[in-house]
Amino acid sequence: MRVLERGVYRGPHLYSLRPMVHFTLDLGALEAWPSDRLPGFTDRLLALLPGLEAHRCSYGVPGGFVRRLREGTWLGHVTEHIALELQTLAGEATAHGKTRSVRGQPGVYRVLYAYCDEQVAWLAGLSALRLVDSLLPTELQGVQGLNVLARGLPDAPTQEPFALPAALEALRTLVRRTSLGPSTQALVNEARRRGIPVTRLDEHSLVQFGHGRHARRIRASITGGTSHLGVLNAGDKHRAKALLEAVGVPVPQGALVRTAQEAVQAAAQLGGAVVTKPLDGNHGRGVSLNLTSPDEVQRGFELAAPHARSRTVVVEEQLPGHDHRVLVVHGEVVAVAERVPAHVVGDGLHSIEALVAAVNADPRRGDGHTNVLTRIVLDQQVQDRLARSGRSLSSVPAAGERVVLRDTANLSTGGSAVDRTDDIHPDNAAIARTAALAVGLDVAGIDLLAPDIARSVRDTGGGVVEVNAAPGLRMHLQPTNGQPRDVARPILAGLYPRGAPSRVPILALTGTNGKSTTGRMVAHILTQAGHTVGLTNTSGVYVAGERIMKADATGPRSARMVLRHPLVTAAVLETARGGLLREGLGYDRADVGAVLNVQADHLGLRGVDTVHDLARVKSLLVRAVSRRGVSVLNADDPLTLRMRRVARGRLALFSLSGVPGEVLREHIAAGGLAALREPGEGGDEIVIYSGGERQVLMPTRDIPATLGGLALFNVDNALAACLMCLGQGVEPATIRVALSTFTASFEQNPGRLNFYDGLPFRVLLDYAHNPAGLEAQRHLLHQLRQPGMRLIGMVSVPGDRRDADIREVGACAARTYDELVFREGPDGRGRPRGEVMALLQAGALEAGFAPERLHLEMEELDAVDVTLRLARPGDLVAIMPTQVDAVWRQIQAFTPDAGTQSAPIPGDSPGGAHP
C-alpha cells in the first residue's frame, strides 16, 4: 500500500456535508486481496478492536461493518473504520466515513472519515494503516508514504513494530494536548445544540461563536462580556476582599505580608487558625489551611510565596465550614458544589499509598482538567499534610477511617464534588450574587465556607474567601455525586439572549460565467438595504466596499475571513470549483445558494473531466443551503436545472429566454419564486413571480450594466441577483433602486465590461476567459459595431485548461475580431512558456483567421501596448486582462503615436462611459 496525498474538508464538500479528513490510498497488489481472502484477518482485527462490532456500515444496523468484512471489502474501507474507532477509543467519538474508488485508477481509493481534531485524525489514520499492515501475511506487508500522514505530527511512529496499546496511548496523549478543556467544550456543545456557528481561533481555548457583527468570543468561562477590571479585581485577593467587605459580604480578616516573619506576626494578631495563600494565585496552588503554630505559618508562607508574582502572601483567619463553590452567571446562582479534599478511606489492610493507587484506578480520573476527576499526586504537600497527623505514605489506616490528603479541595488536586444546588440557603445565594456583582464579573466562582450550606452563614459563621474569574465548570457538569447541572446554557443565554441573532446571512454563488458581476450586484443591493456587506471574488475580499485583501478570494479561507470580520452583517461569497474540491465550503450552511450556469471550463483537473462532473461539484452550493433558505438555479441551463433534485430550501428559478420551459411553467403555476426576462411595451422587462402573483420589477434598459439591455449576460446576472436578494427578504423596491445604480464602471465592477473613452478609440476591459464567455462577448460587440469600426482583441487563457479548450478560445476569438493579439498568462500553470499562445494561434488559424492579422506577445503589459497601438480612431479594442488593476492603469496612461488625430467614435454617449 502507498499513501499518495492527504487533505482536509473543513466544511461541506463533494462527499458529505460533514467536515472530514481524507487521504488517497493506492492498494497496489492488495487490490486483489479483499478482507474475505485474508485468512484470520477479520477475527484478529475484532479481537483487537471489538468496538467495530457496533459499526453500522452498509446495512444500517450494528454489525453491518463486520458483515462486510466477512463478505469481503477492500482495505481502504477497513482503514476508514479503524481510524474512526481509534479516535473514539482515544476520547474523540466520531462515526461517519466514506471510502470511494478514484475513477480511472484501479486500486486507488479516497479514504474519508470524520474528525474532532485534525492532528488526532492524521495520527488515527496512520495508526489504522499500520494496524492493517500488521495483520497481513508477511509477504503482503509494507506501507509506503506514511510520512504523508505523519507530516506535522511530533514523534509520529512509522517504522518500529506496531503495538496497539502504544498507539492508543499516543493518541490519548495527543487528545489531551489538543482537545478543549471541559468548560470550553461544554460551551461549544451548547452553542452547537442551539445552531450557533463555532470557530476555534487558536490551539488553546479561544473560540468564536457566531458570525460577523454577531460574533462573541470565549476562553473557557471567560466571555467577551467579562469585565477586564472584574478579572483584575478577582485576581487581587486583598482588593477583592475589600470590595466585598464594603458591601456587607462576610469575609475573613487578614493582612498582606512579604516575609515569613511578617506572616507569623500577622497570624499572632489574628489569633486562632489561619490560612496562607498567594495574593494572585489560582487552582489552590500554594494554599495552606488550619495553620496554628509559628512553624506551620512560616512553612505556609514558604509554600505560597513562589506562586505570587510579587511574593506577596495573604494571611487570614480560618473561617469555619465546608468548602463550597457557588457559580454565579449574570447575577444569578446557577449551581453549587461542595468540594471535598482528596482523601482515602482505610480498609485496615492497605497503606495510604496503595489506597491512593486504587482511587486513581477509577476510569473517571485522569491527568489535567479533561477528565471528570483528576488523579491524586503524592507530592511533598501530601506528605507534609500526613506528617502533621503523624502518618506517612506507608501508614495503614483503620477500616472506615477517612484520611484527608490535602488542605485544599480543588478538583485539580484530586478533590471531588457533591452537588448542593438545591440545598443552598437564600441568604447564602444572595451573598454569592452580591460578591460577583461587587467584583464586577458576569461569570464568577464564589468560594464560600459554610458549616451547613442550608443555613445562613450570618447565623453559623463562615463567609466568602475568594471570588474567581474563569471558574471551572467541571464540578457542576459532572459532579462526583449528585445531579449534573447544565451551567453552559445560562452562560450562552447571556451571550445570545432569546431571539438574538448569531449568524449573518450567507449568500453564496457559483457558476462558470457571471459569478463576479452577480456577486457585486447582490452586494450592491444588500448595501442599499442597509447591510455592511462582506464580499469575496477573484479580485479580493471586500468589506463595506473597501478591499481588505487583494487576491483570488473565491475559496473557503476567504469566506472564513469575511465571517470573522466584526463589522459584517451579510456575506456574499463567490465560490469557485478549486476551493470546493480542495477544502469544501468555508461555512456550514448558506441562507441562499445560487448556481448560475455550468459550461465546459476547468475540465481535466482533479478528477473533473466532464461538464457533468463539474455540475456535480457546483451543486454543492445548493445542497448546503439551510432548510429555510433559498436555492437559485438557471432554468435555461439543463445541467443547472437538474440540480433542483438535490437543492435544499425553497427553489427559485430564473430564465433569460423569455419562453419558459415545462419545468419553469409548472414551478410558477405552483406558486414558486421565479425571475424572467419578458417582452414589454417599451422593451424587455424583469418580471418576478411569487405565490401565484406576477410583478414587473423594471425594464432591463434601466440597469446601466446591461448597456441599454444589449448585454444579455448582465441581464442574466441581474435575474439571478434579484432572486438571491428576494430570497433574503429584500423588498423589490430596494432591488429596483439598487440595480438602477449598478453600472459597468471599473469602480463598481473592475474587469467586467469596463469601457474607457479617453482615447481616439474605444477600449473595453472584460475578463472573458472561456468559449462561453467569448461567445457572449462576441454577441455584444457585434451589436455595438458601427460602420467602419474594426474590432481588435487581446486574448489569453489560463494554462490549466485542456488543449482542445484553449484552441476553441482561439477559434472564438477569430470569429469575433478583425485583429488579434494572443499573449501568455503570467503563470503557465504547468505549461512551458509560449505553449498557450501556440495553441490559441492554432485554433485561430484552423478557424480561418488571416495570419498577417495575428500577433503574439509573451508578456501581458507588452501585449496591451501592442494592442492599443494597432487601433485607429473609431475602432473598438477589447482587452481580456489577468492583472486587472495594472492593465486599467496602463490603458488610462496610454499615449497614442504622434500624429494620431482624435475623431468622433461611432455610438459614443455624451457621458463617455457607456454606449
UniProtKB/TrEMBL annotation:
It holds the Pfam family ATP-grasp_5. Residues 895-915 are annotated as: Disordered. InterPro entries: ATP-grasp, ATP_grasp_subdomain_1, Cya_phycin_syn, Cyanophycin_syn_N, Folylpolyglutamate_synth_CS, Mur-like_cat_sf, Mur_ligase_C, Mur_ligase_C_dom_sf. Transmembrane segments: none annotated. One of its GO terms (molecular function) is cyanophycin synthetase activity (L-aspartate-adding). Residues 241-496 form the ATP-grasp domain. It comes from the Bacteria. Its EC number is 6.3.2.29, 6.3.2.30. Keywords: ATP-binding, Ligase, Nucleotide-binding. It catalyses: [L-4-(L-arginin-2-N-yl)aspartate](n) + L-aspartate + ATP = [L-4-(L-arginin-2-N-yl)aspartate](n)-L-aspartate + ADP + phosphate + H(+); [L-4-(L-arginin-2-N-yl)aspartate](n)-L-aspartate + L-arginine + ATP = [L-4-(L-arginin-2-N-yl)aspartate](n+1) + ADP + phosphate + H(+). Homodimer. Catalyzes the ATP-dependent polymerization of arginine and aspartate to multi-L-arginyl-poly-L-aspartic acid (cyanophycin; a water-insoluble reserve polymer). In the C-terminal section; belongs to the MurCDEF family. This is Cyanophycin synthetase. The gene is cphA.
